[in-house]
């Protein structure tokens, strides 16, 4: 395939988020100006964020799925304008590990970043959602250690996320970071596991990363000068 330039926009670092930097001044209105597809969270970890076709959804720990106002803010998010460079039909039953191996086979090169969109039927999927935090903020490993994992069976929905090379560890989530939402927009969260029945799988190959760092005291004073890979794995359940 012919590779063309395509940009991912990211605000803050996953390593900063793991250290409890949960507030910033970037609004959703500004974020959506950089991309119509993506994921992240909200200030104070007030829910998981999923952006599809320019619409932002908040997936809360109480099970609520809402569309937040454009004035709401995010401490960490990753977005792009999704263009499907690679499209395949997958037929299951297929576990998450089998799915991941199949996606490895169709991607152009593991040295690039990819936005991933999966639309189809699932035998089941399990997801978790962060619970809103109050100051003083705890590190994310502590804040997420008692999260409930909720399972939904036999549904149609969308998985959206990013596949990121290992060299970006600490900046982004190395590996696959994905959120899920059902077609009825009544359930969703951070994707933990699933079994796929059938789906359209699309990859958007990304060559450029525009990184915006917060100008907050919390970010400037955070201790980010170490390897956070183990913390990130615990938080992301990888």
UniProtKB/TrEMBL annotation:
Alphabetized SUPFAM superfamilies for the sequence: AF0104/ALDC/Ptd012-like
PANTHER family xrefs: ALPHA-ACETOLACTATE DECARBOXYLASE
Record bears the keyword Magnesium: no
Protein family per UniProt: Belongs to the alpha-acetolactate decarboxylase family.
This protein's pathway: Polyol metabolism; (R,R)-butane-2,3-diol biosynthesis; (R,R)-butane-2,3-diol from pyruvate: step 2/3
Name recorded for this polypeptide: Alpha-acetolactate decarboxylase
Pfam families given in the database record: AAL_decarboxy
Catalytic function, reaction form: (2S)-2-acetolactate + H(+) = (R)-acetoin + CO2
Keyword vocabulary terms for this entry: Acetoin biosynthesis, Decarboxylase, Lyase
Alphabetized GO MF terms: acetolactate decarboxylase activity
One of the GO BP terms on file: acetoin biosynthetic process
Record lineage: Bacteria, Bacillati, Actinomycetota, Actinomycetes, Mycobacteriales
Domain of life where this protein originates: Bacteria
EC numbers: 4.1.1.5
Keyword Lyase: yes
InterPro entries: Acetolactate_a_deCO2ase
């Amino acid at each position: 395939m012919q590779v063309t330039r395509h940009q991912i926009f990211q605000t803050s670092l996953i390593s900063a988020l793991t250290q409890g930097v949960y507030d910033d001044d970037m609004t959703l209105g500004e974020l959506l100006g950089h991309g119509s597809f993506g994921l992240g969270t909200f200030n104070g970890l007030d829910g998981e964020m999923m952006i599809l076709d320019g619409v932002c959804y908040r997936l809360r720990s109480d099970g609520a799925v809402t569309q937040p106002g454009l004035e709401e803010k995010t401490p960490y998010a990753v977005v792009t304008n999704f263009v499907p460079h690679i499209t395949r039909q997958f037929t299951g039953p297929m576990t998450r590990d089998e799915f991941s191996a199949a996606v490895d086979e169709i991607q152009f090169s593991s040295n690039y970043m990819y936005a991933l969109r999966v639309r189809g039927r699932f035998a089941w999927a399990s997801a978790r959602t962060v619970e809103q935090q109050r100051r003083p903020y705890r590190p994310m490993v502590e804040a997420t250690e008692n999260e409930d994992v909720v399972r939904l069976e036999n549904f149609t929905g969308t998985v959206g996320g990013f596949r990121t090379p290992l060299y970006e560890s600490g900046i982004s989530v190395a590996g696959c970071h994905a959120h899920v939402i059902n077609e009825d927009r009544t359930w969703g969260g951070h994707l933990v596991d699933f079994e796929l029945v059938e789906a359209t799988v699309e990859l958007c190959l990304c060559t450029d990363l525009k990184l915006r760092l917060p100008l907050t005291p919390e970010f400037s004073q955070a201790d980010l000068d170490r390897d956070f890979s183990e913390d990130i794995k615990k938080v992301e359940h990888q």
